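Case 393 in the screening queue. Each case pairs one protein sequence with one candidate compound; here the compound is adenosine-5'-triphosphate. For every case the pipeline is the same: read the inputs, emit a complex structure as C-alpha cells, and attach any notable structural observations.

Predict complex for case 393.
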Amino acid sequence: MEASKQQHLPAAPERVIIPFIEGDGVGREIMPVCRRVVDHAVAKAYGGKRSLDWTEALAGEKAFNATGNRLPEETMNMFREYPVGIKGPLTTPVGGGVRSLNVALRQTLDLYVCLRPVRWFRGVDSPLKEPQKVNMVVFRENTEDIYAGIEWQQGTPEARKFLQFLTGEMGVTKIRFPETSSFGVKPVSIEGTERLVRAAIKYALKNQLPGVTLVHKGNIMKFTEGGFKNWGYALAEREFARETAEGKLVIKDVIADAFLQNTLLTPEKYSVIATLNLNGDYISDQLAAMVGGIGIAPGANINYESGHAVFEATHGTAPDIAGKNTANPSSLLLSAAMMLEYMGWNQAAALITNAMEKAFIKGEATHDLARFMPKGKSLGTVQFGDKIMNEMD
Ligand code: ATP
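Case 393 output:
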C-alpha cells in the first residue's frame, strides 16, 4: 500500500511501536493469538532485524474496569501519536453518552477510507461455483453519506421544524406522510469523493490492477450518489489522464443493485471498488459472505494523507462464543497482514496468508469454517494459531 510514501514512517524502521486494543468478548482470545503469529512471521521473515513493539491501549470493558472510562484520552493520544495501530472488536454499550471508539477514532483521525479486501482462500467453503474469481478491494467512504448521523425522530420539535423548512422555504411537496416522518440528511461532497476515489485509483495503479469501478445509486439520488460518480470520473480525467491514455487505468461505474448481482455472476470483472458509505457496508458484507464470512474478513480505516491507519477485526465481540476458545482469529490476523503490507513488510504478511491457506487446504480451521469443509478438522483459537505458525516453519 502507500506506506513507503508516508513521510512519518521511517524508510526501513526496524522496531515499530504498534498500539493495540485487545477488544471485548472474543477480542481477548483472538488478539493474543494474532500477536504471537505476527511476531513469529516477522521473526521468520527478517531474522530478528525487524520487530514490533506491541503497546496496549486500553478501551472497552478493560479500560472501564481499570479507569472508569471506556475510552480514556490516553488511548486516543496513542493512536494520534503512532500512525499504525490495530484493534479487536469492542462492545458499544447501549444508551446515551457513550461514543463508540470506532466513531471516535474515525472522526479524530479523519480515517476517510474503510478498506476491505475480499479474496478467497483455497480450502474454504463458498456458495459460489468459482470462488477463485473473487479478488476485490473495497474502498468504502467512511465520513459522509447517511452515516453522518444527521437525523430527526418523527414527532419531535426538530422534525417539525425541519418539515416546516422543507415545505415552507424549499417548496417540497413530495413527502407522502409528512406528520409522521422521521428525516435524515445525506451529505456527499466533492472533497470527500475525490480523496476516496484518488486513494482507490492510486491503490489500483500501485498494485497493477486494471482499474476502479465506481458503485453508486446515481440513477435515483442524482446529486449525492450521482455526484459521487461524476466527481469520480472528473478526478480521474484531471489527475490520471496519462495513466488512462496509456491503458494502465480504466474507470467504470455501475449501479449498486446491478453490482451486487454481478458480484455473484461475474466477480472477475471487478478488482478495486470505490463507493459511498452505505453501499460499502452492504457490499463488503456480501462479498465477505461469498468467501467465508465475517470470521475471515479483514479491514482497515485509513487516512492516506496523514498516514494514520487502524487495522481491525471486522466482526463484533461474538458474546455467544466468547471464552470458549472457538473464535476464528483470521479476520484479525488478515488485518494484521494488511498492516504489515501497509508498513512495507510484505514478506512477513505473505508468510501469514500463505500459512493460513495451507491450513485451510488441509481442512484445518476453527469450527466456523471447518464444519463446512469436506474433511474439516475443528481447531481451537489457540491451536489454529499454532497450526499457522507450524505451516510457516
Ligand atoms: P456485537 O454486538 O459485538 O456486534 P454480535 O454477536 O451481534 O456482536 P458478531 O460478533 O459480528 O455480532 O457475530 C455475529 C455472529 O458471527 C455470531 O454468531 C458470532 O458467534 C459469529 N462470529 C463473529 N465473529 C466470529 C469469529 N471471529 N469466529 C467465529 N464466529 C464468529
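Case 393 observations:
- Residues 26, 89, 91, 294-295, 315-321, 327-328, 331, 368 surround adenosine-5'-triphosphate (CB under 6 Å).
- The longest strand covers residues 15-21.
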